[in-house]
Amino acid sequence: MRPPTIAVAVRERLTYANVMATTAVFIALGGSAWALTANSVGTKHLRNNAVTTEKIADSAITARKLGCKGNSAQDKMVRVGSVCIDRYENSIWTKRTGGTRITGPIPCDANGQDCKGVIFARSVARVAPRADITWFQAQQALANSGKRLPTSAEWQMTVAGTPDGGGCNVSSGSAQRTGTARGCVSAHGANDMVGNLYEWVADWAQRSTCFGNWGFSDDFQGLCGAATDDDAVALVRGGDYDSGVLAGPFAVAGGGPTASVGIFGFRGAR
């Protein structure tokens, strides 16, 4: 007997072979589940509006169930709540799934207007993370790869559990290859979020006129005393390879979005 909660038009006759030889697909509708075979019900057998948002049970489709896969075996991401975040600080490449890593000048403008299909962001272990990249270029490299910059809140969720300096590259004087600071890993499995390179995030703010620390942390914060002019900055998080005690999971500063700086890098989300 067909479950009454699913409005589908099933073929009049199902053979034993096509039932047993195909993989069962479980569709959660209205809190009920029914095993269907790939050959038994197709889109042409479903009445209009038989499957709607209202009929899909809460949490039937989640990031956990879909997984957090990058664009290739080397492009690593981790799951943080409902968001997928790149495991490593990004490098840029000539193709979405690889090609050649771009280590010299970025072959598109600082404002990102001509970067479509030119540079691609990838989260790859044991390579030099890309610095000297503007906010706009990072944004476009991620867009070309089907990703985006994380918000500052998403970045903050992901960094949780990362040591506040100890084990991270905060005093070496240069950026290290991604993932080589083995003690610098968040509770969610993301590497190098403290130190190595400051990381662009999606948020912008008014330029700060003063710098200090948080009352609850010695991490650097540059969000006080907003300027009254029109000069906005894009936020960067985490500190860099020379920040010392100012680096940490709460460190936040800002840079002009067209600034190409040797201590600014990025990672992606989707």
CATH architecture call of the largest domain: Alpha-Beta Complex
Number of strands: 13
Strand order of the largest sheet: 12-11-8-13
Let me know the CATH homologous superfamily of the largest domain: paralog of FGE (formylglycine-generating enzyme)
At the fold tier of CATH, the topology name of the largest domain is paralog of FGE (formylglycine-generating enzyme)
Overall geometry: globular
Helix percent reads: 10-25%
Q: How much is the radius of gyration in Å?
A: 23 Å
Average pLDDT, all residues: 83
Specify the CATH class of the largest domain: Alpha Beta
How much of the residues is beta strand, in percent? Answer: 25-35%
H/E series: HEEHEEEEEHHEEEEEE
Structural class: mainly beta
Give the N-terminus to C-terminus distance in angstroms: 41 Å
Number of helices, where a helix is a run of at least 4 consecutive DSSP H or I residues: 4
Largest sheet: 4 strands, mixed
**Number of folding domains?**
2
Low-pLDDT stretches are: 1-41, 59-65
In short:
This protein has 270 residues and is mainly beta. The chain has helices at residues 16-20, 63-66, 135-144, 152-159, and strands at 24-29, 32-37, 77-80, 83-86, 91-95, 98-101, 120-122, 198-206, 208-214, 217-226, 232-237, 252-255, 264-266.
Give an overview of the whole structure.
The protein is mainly β. It folds into two domains: 16-61, no CATH class; 65-266, paralog of FGE (formylglycine-generating enzyme), CATH 3.90.1580.10. It contains four helices and 13 strands. The protein has helices at residues 16-20, 63-66, 135-144, 152-159, and strands at 24-29, 32-37, 77-80, 83-86, 91-95, 98-101, 120-122, 198-206, 208-214, 217-226, 232-237, 252-255, 264-266. The strands form five sheets. The chain has a four-stranded mixed beta sheet. It starts with 15 loop residues before the first helix and ends with a strand. Residues 1-41 and 59-65 have low confidence and may be disordered.
